[in-house]
Amino acid sequence: MSILTSNLEVPVFYPTYDEFENFSSYISKIESQGAHKIGLAKIVPPKQWIPRKMGYKQKSIDETMVENPIKQEVHGKDGLYLVYNIQQRSIKLSQFQKLASSRRYVTPPSISNDFEKLEKKYWENLPSIAPIYGADVSGSFYDKSQKAWNINNLGSILDDLEVEYGTKIEGVNTAYLYFGMWKATFAWHTED
């Protein structure tokens, strides 16, 4: 039985705009309601919250470089797998998106809404057609002026590293972007 078909329900929260403005306060609130108990919560932003006023169809985004993406070659079967992360040459995000949308790499459309079939297909086809995964790309697509829920401006204890010690730790107190496609597996990339 997979987590998708078990009895665990991921709690879903719908903060008001005022609640959403203060990250630390809202996290404390939902933790007091048990949001942390299964290690996962879904927080749906209020409709009036806009992380990027200019939208996402911009040349500046398309020109973002996905630095050294990895091809995730999987070998094995029956639950025992070995993954080779093979570094690829850097490509523009627009090229990565085109690749991810191609027939070779796209999620099978006929089962994309059936999670059990999708999970089964994932495991059955894992060793074939190695996906490309862009991990640990420094940056953010949020507007710099957006303070609410902007990874670069969360107002958390991690900010103290930079304020008090002048220390930036990439991906810890700075934002990272991740780019995936069908079968790319986050847990199988080399961690920092």
UniProtKB/TrEMBL annotation:
JmjC domain: residues covered: 143-192
Pfam families assigned to the protein according to its UniProt record, in alphabetical order: JmjN
SMART domains assigned: JmjN
Span of domain JmjN: 10-52
Database matches in SUPFAM superfamilies: Clavaminate synthase-like
Example of a GO MF term: histone H3K36 demethylase activity
One of the protein's GO biological processes: regulation of gene expression
InterPro entries cross-referenced by the UniProt entry: JmjC_dom, JmjN
GO cellular component: chromatin; nucleus
PANTHER family: LYSINE-SPECIFIC DEMETHYLASE, LYSINE-SPECIFIC DEMETHYLASE 4B-RELATED
Protein's name according to its UniProt entry: JmjN domain-containing protein
Organism: Rotaria socialis
